[in-house]
Amino acid sequence: MSGFPWGAFAQNLALAAGAAFAVMLATFAVAVRGGVHRIVDVAWGMAFTAVALVTFLASAGEGDEARRVLVTVLTSVWGLRLAAHIARRGRGHGEDPRYEAMLAKAPGSRDLYALRMVYLLQGALVWLVSLPVQAAQYIPGPLTGFAWAGTALWALGLFFEAVGDAQ
After folding, report:
1. Are residues 143 and 73 in contact, defined by beta-carbon separation less than 8 angstroms?
2. 63 pLDDT more than 90
């Protein structure tokens, strides 16, 4: 990629990892206090939003401003919608059966096992899966028709995701 600011992007990678892990660690603290680890599923969407916002701030002065805003808004809308849906769906329920079964077999402390096998793993996955979001913030040059076609595809996907969740 000609003109891609690799040095700034490398610094961003660390900041984005910090954002993803900060969301997961804060969620872990809330989960331990409340005794229910199912809230980590809510944090999944919130962590993508945090990474997009941190990357937007870190990429100031780099990349195309319109692309930076577009990527941040699309990622944040998706992440917050998903987090809100999962939070509503899980309200008033106890522990998720998946986590209950996994933690029942945990060697030693259930909470430390959950931290290692759920929260830190999901934080790493958020960072990895969000690499295209992070890189897009640093791409120079104006938006093209591909960006708008991608935005239309995003909107269609979000619509079907929301309809599927409602069903």
Report:
1. no
2. yes
- In degrees and rounded to multiples of 5, residue 128 shows phi and psi of -65, -50
- Per-residue 3-state assignment (H helix, E strand, C coil) for the chain: CCCCCHHHHHHHHHHHHHHHHHHHHHHHHHHHHHCCHHHHHHHHHHHHHHHHHHHHHHCCCCCCHHHHHHHHHHHHHHHHHHHHHHHHHHCCCCCCHHHHHHHHCCCCCHHHHHHHHHHHHHHHHHHHHCHHHHHHCCCCCCCCHHHHHHHHHHHHHHHHHHHHHHC
Residue type, 21: F
Q: What is the mean pLDDT of residues 112-120?
A: 96
User: What pLDDT does 1 receive?
Assistant: 53
Banded model confidence at residue 38, pLDDT cuts 50, 70, 90? very high
Q: Which two tokens stand for residue 98?
A: 């998946």
The vertex-98 CA angle with 133 and 41, nearest 5°, equals 30
Average pLDDT on 1-9 reads 87
